[in-house]
Amino acid sequence: ENYSYDRYHPMGEIYQWMSQIRENYPEVVTQHFLGMTYESRPMYYLKISQPSNNPKKILWMDCGIHAREWIAPAFCQWFVKEILQNYKDSSRIRRLLKNLDFYVLPVLNIDGYIYTWTTDRLWRKSRSPHDNGTCFGTDLNRNFNASWCSVGASHNCQDLTFCGTGPESEPETKAVSSFIESRKENIACFLTMHSYGQLILLPYGYTENKSSNHEELVHLEVRGDPLGLMIGKRKENLLEDDDSPFPELQVGQKAANALKAKHGTNYRVGSSADILYATSGSSRDWARDIGIPFSYTFELRDNGTYGFVLPEAQIQATCEETMEAVLSVLDDVYEKYWSASRAG
Ligand code: 0X9
Ligand code: ZN
Question: Which value does ipTM take for this structure?
Answer without folding.
Answer: 0.95
